[in-house]
Amino acid sequence: MSDETLSNLLHENRTFEPPATLAKNANAQPDMYEDAKKDRLGFWDKQADRLTWDTRWTQTLDWSKAPFAKWFVGGKLNVAYNCVDRHVENGLGSRVAFHFEGEPGDTQTITYAQLQDRVKKAANALISLNVGKGDRVAIYMPMIPEAVVAMLACARVGAIHSVVFGGFSAEALRSRIDDAQAKLVITADGQNRRGSAMPLKPAVDEAVAQTPSVEKVLVVKRTGGEVSWGDKDVWWHELVDGQSTSHKPEAFDAEQPLFILYTSGTTGQPKGILHTSGGYLTQAAFTHFNVFDLKPENDIYWCTADIGWVTGHSYIVYGPLANGATQVIYEGTPDTPHKGRFWEIIEKYGVTIFYTAPTAIRTFMKWGKEFPDKHNLKTLRVLGSVGEPINPEAWMWYREVIGGNNCPIVDTWWQTETGAIMISPLPGVTACKPGSAMRPLPGIGAEIFDEEANAVGNGHGGYLVLTEPWPAMLRGIWGDEERFRETYWSRFAGKYFAGDGAKWDEDGAIWLLGRVDDVMNISGHRISTTEVESALVSHPAIAEAAVVGASDETTGQGIVAFVILRSGSEDGEGLVKQLRDHVAKEIGPIAKPRQIMVVPELPKTRSGKIMRRLLRDVAENRSMGDATTLADPTVMNLISQGLASGKSED
Ligand code: WTA
Description:
This protein has a domain at 519-645: ANL, C-terminal domain (GMP Synthetase, Chain A, domain 3, 2-Layer Sandwich), CATH 3.30.300. Strand 14 (257-263) and strand 15 (271-276) form a beta hairpin. It is globular and about 75 Å long. It has 21 helices and 30 strands. Bound molecules: 5'-O-[(S)-ethoxy(hydroxy)phosphoryl]adenosine.
């Protein structure tokens, strides 16, 4: 990690105590830290008791085959039963599970009893398609209730879902279906985005044509209009709606795989992060209840994430539903039909807990406070942030403009791999500093190491590691045991290396400093430099490419690409646009480079490694750092000159 990353951390002295009434009534009280410290496994046993188990576990943790953990060994439960049925059995059938708001303004109110019927019907539909325990199901859907129903139906029958973000391309979908050998794809004809219907089905058709493992494609009609139809295609309303609402959930082993979720690593090939049932649901429910101080009978909770990301899995589907929460779920973008849509929704439903991403907050700041100011946001009492470090100005704006200076902000650090929140304030306990995730939650062990695996003290920075296994931890990378060991467990023997830099401040609060590997964070989404480089090099005009994440005011980082043309290719009109479109086709629009520069050479060390640090300097318009290890020191002059002429900028 460069010193520069560490030194750009400003000194922050402001702290904000929790509001007194919230503190007094908070679900999590200060003694929780002590409790967990005294008996960590006993603490997690207690949290697992939040769930309803068919068979109780006999051992809390089996770490004898590290890094492959088993939690709640011998326990059996059904995840969907825990998220839905048990609430109905407890007399809460008429409680609203979801207030759904479609982008065009259509709405649905779904109670727990109705959700139960919908999940049972969908489970019966899966069974009719011969989908059962251990089968993989790819879900490629918009933010509509059927997406949640599809996930829960898989969980109910023991099938493993792999949700692929609806913004990913056909090629990205194809590779994920193929890696997991999915048998079924659940999708929709299209989704409403920015006021128009965007098709989804054509990407599925393209992917499925190349993935023989897929037997059927189940299609929700969302936007209407023409879709091409093949013999594998089945309409959701034709198959699911007529199913019986009786289905008995089977109890599965605590370690039954629940889902695979692909995320970018440092190579071009996305990793299928594997999560299982009992431990995952325990920690998702525990964190949702305590970090957001959920009062299920009163709160209206809204997490703006998409179900295509882990935040949607843990904090729209599994955590909140296991806790019997009432939620808002919104299909569209925040500026449709106007830039106040989010605030209008908060006012309309009386949202009390709001969880979003720093990139969104910075966008709202840019749009101006006149949009939130038009709406009554007084119902809000807890605010959350996730996905990337939140800069102190954005934190303060969130606090003042959205929270009316009256809501604790929980800045929650975690990852697809961790499954649930790991480092975060507790809203009724922690005095928060703007921009800090503060400290590990009770039951979680985190340290900051230097290069030699020594824990650094207060005031120092290094690599963030997790020192103890945790219930929601990933159980591996789908089909690649070696990569799992290598990626997470080899940098510091026996400890989980998160890939993030972090620092303890003088008071022992943790500040996250961004990735230390070749993974970029674009609007809170992980994209690897290698993935974008491979996409660029797969274009016939490109010989070589180097990609860096350059800091960006709104998106956190922006993708900047340096490309070398193949001989005979011309840096003509339209090449940059072609390349950007090509990346969108290979990966998805979120991976489109912000800027592409055609260069004659790339800076390399004598051993041939691209010196991204220097490229980052160029991309961020900084004077160049130390270039003494460059094989050819004139290269950077050439690159800078090209940049100054601006000829290949997009
Ligand atoms: C980053 C998202 C700082 C971090 C839940 C991590 C954060 C990666 C925070 C995981 C935060 C997430 N402060 N950085 N509060 N939350 N990150 O897998 O770099 O999509 O490693 O999971 O996002 O991204 P992922």
